[in-house]
Write a structure and sequence with these properties.
By secondary structure, the protein is an alpha/beta fold. The chain is 43% helix and 14% strand. It has eight helices and five strands, in the order H-E-H-E-H-H-E-H-E-H-H-E-H. A five-stranded parallel beta sheet has the order 2-3-1-4-5, sandwiched between helices. The chain is globular and about 55 Å long. It starts with 14 loop residues before the first helix and ends in a 5-residue tail after the last helix.
Length: 200
Amino acid sequence: MTQKHIVPQHYEISRRDRNHLNGHRSFVVWFTGLSGSGKSTLANLVEKYLLESEVHTYLLDGDNVRHGLCSDLDFSSEGRTENIRRIGEVANLMVDAGLVVLTAFVSPFREDRERVRRTVGSENYVEVFVDCPVEECEKRDVKGLYKKAREGVIKDFTGISSPFEPPVSPDVHVHTDKEPIEESLKKIKAVIAQKLEIVA
């Protein structure tokens, strides 16, 4: 079946209805950065903060998604691009469902992140660049991935044998090697607060 034979179904309940029911807007907070930079840690803390504020959320994390939805994909450039494309589509559905979606993915390529922005809409996309030098990430190496990459066990590893293209103008730019985690959280919360207006 080709795309021209697919006709979208229109529903009576809209995203606006769900936002009104929840009492807040829905959007995506996209955390990007090297492995070990602190994306998942920050995303978890932000979700906890939002939960305490009675905001409806869901957190999509790279490793968890790779075990299910994207378990058939490798870590080649093509595999990574398809991984992020799928996540973008899932995030878009969740935004339509009325959730604030937090995502923690290396997502190394700018074009892939821009595709997600286009999918969900710029007004529904908050990009958080979790900036940390590869040297510091490698020191942390919480999952032992850098060691495996250096040994050649892992191919195409971002920061070692595959490039990371940093955001040009992220909505939030935090430096987890220079600032306390509380300072990073403060920056992220400030931007989210502006986005998280109550729906009348």
